[in-house]
Amino acid sequence: DVSLVIIFSTAATFFFSYIASVILQNEYRSFLPLWYTWDAQHYVEIAMGWYRNSTVDERNLQIVFFPLYPLLIKIVAFFVGSYIMAGLWVSNLAFAGAAVYMYKLAKLDYGEEDSWRALIYMVIFPTAYFLHAIYTESLFLFLAMASFYYSRRGSWALSGAFGLLASATRITGIVLIPALIVEYLAQKNYKIREVKKDVLWIGLTVVGFLFYLGINYMTFGDPFKFLEIQKEHWGKRLDLPWNGFLLTYNTMTSREPEIAMLTGWFEIFFVFLGLALSIYALLKVRISYGVFALLSWLVMTSTWWWQSIPRYLLVVFPVFLSLSILGRNRTVNFIITFSSLLLYALLLIQLVRFKWAF
What confidence score (pLDDT) does residue 59 get? Predict the structure, then answer.
């Protein structure tokens, strides 16, 4: 059943995107350029030429992108002969892994129906098309869930290894550390005397982030250069979530309706949806999952303006477990499923129009 979901959702996403492109553009177009847009171009360029330090080469700005994903693209491109195809292969193989671990993780605590719903809600989430695109979402989601799965099974070395890879993929990999510590303590009934040396495996998670800082240092002589470039060239700087809300809300009135809807109302809705489902995960699903979800939410919203929250929320896997429990009600299940599919189609159309789609 899981393999069917993987195959069908992947094929349907690519098929629908191509058909939508033909209809909207009124011409038959090449398939690959549809998926080689926005950040996908940065990841492929990093894979081709790695990071640069040059005042005349804008690729030095790409240091804000973490290294594992483009490194995997480079490796796969050696075999398939195309960096774009390699990116799609990496993402969709990672999507398959994410789907498997979503189901396996849910099965540790819930029955067949709840696990199935969690999987379905993940693959039809409004921004789940990014799990198939040349972006890091599918890879990080796979690695984060694998890390949690092996922590639940008591295989802390494997958990730490997957955590290491996750923190070399996205900055939110760091929040795995406190979440995994909470999970470890929960398995010991929060008795400090029961803590063993195997807890140290969790520390592996920070190695991936240190590797990224090392790249910053080797390229620019500053391990935290990415923070400066994020602020100066990408318009992202740390701030209180409340300030992010105020700026996002206040700028909607000065923007045209399409942009105001996508970069305003959508951002705000998914921020509060993510917060509600994260709190629900903390209270009703599992404490360690809730810690991971809430800290991830805090990282994505602690900026002076909110951007791409609907996409960032996609990798917060406890959201789907929370939705699965709520979806036990048939009416709620229908609302979640129908709404997700409508938004998925709408935003996928935006993507093939080369418009803002998070």
Answer: 57
